[in-house]
User: What shape does this take?
Amino acid sequence: MTATKVGRDTALAQIIKVVEDAQGSKAPIQRLADQISGVFVPIVVGIALVTFLIWIIWVQPGEFTPALEVLIAVLVIACPCALGLATPTSIMAGSGRAAEFGILFKGGEHLEQTQSIDTVVVDKTGTVTHGKPVLTDVVLAANQDEVRFLSLIGAAEKQSEHPLAEAIVQGIADRGIGLGDVQFFEAIPGYGVQATVSGQGVVIGTRKLMQQYGIHIDDILPTMEQLEESGKTAMLAAINGQYAGLVAVADTVKDTSKEAVSRLQEMGITVIMMTGDNERTAQAIGAEVGVNHVIAEVLPEGKANEVKKLQATGKKVAMVGDGINDAPALATANIGMAIGTGTDVAMEAADITLIRGDLNSIADAIIMSRKTMRNIKQNLFWAFAYNTLGI
Assistant: This one.
């Protein structure tokens, strides 16, 4: 047995640290309370002194002890402990309670800001879907041998870290087909891969990638569109500059995604699905979960720009993702939410980690933020009310 993480490096230790940091941090509303206390205290001291003078001059002239007693009474009743405790107590309770639901806020400011979110942008693969697609279709061009085709494609895709590539490799392995030797490999983010396998030039990816290499694909496009309309992701493959076939994979939608989208919409929040996948597949998945706004064929570097566009229209945007390519968008959004089943990079860039990987946690996080802020305002109101009444 090998222990890969021990002590403070374990997942549990990191969760505890995140919760403790959040509970010890100051939300913006706490700074407001501190500023109010800064004004409140000198005013109360002034009122106490005026009370002392009124007592010693008019109420009980010349009697020092009763005047001192009422001065002390005013100071004691108006001690602003409640103002100082109103926010941190709620932040501690709110972030601790959220952690019980698998929602980790990295700081009090994030717990406060989440309540104002009006637009949620969700990544598709690994967020709305399980992110574990399976190989469903292999369509060969004329004169192509399936074993040779899959051997070359599988070898090239084995070098890629993309979930779709893993699905292709696993599907080929399940067919009992061996893989060729890779002499060269290059991933082209947002487009596909190119490789040299057993001396053969292999290119796998999108329509745009095929167009860049001048590969004729017009004849296969109707079949490809049909697969995409059924929610599958189809990838074209060329060998030595000639179209050789396509492979299609399907990623299943999480059971809770539709319910989660519906909950957010009922809360008055706009839900947008953003993906690098093609338009037809994205629309099919969007329709399945009830998302009306779909932004498809977005390159990894373009996700952050899409978030900025929404922010430029005055939207308060939460970005929800799980992958390395989501990290810039998570950091750009007003609130970044990382799915806990995703990459460490995404979780590091995000403000909130949703440990359970369930989209219902998005609505739970917003509700928790709203309830915590309502509690803080109640605390501040009653602190002021009884201090004022006491004075």
User: Anything to note?
Assistant: The domain at 132-251 is CATH 3.40.1110.10 (Calcium-transporting ATPase, cytoplasmic domain N). The longest strand covers residues 242-250.
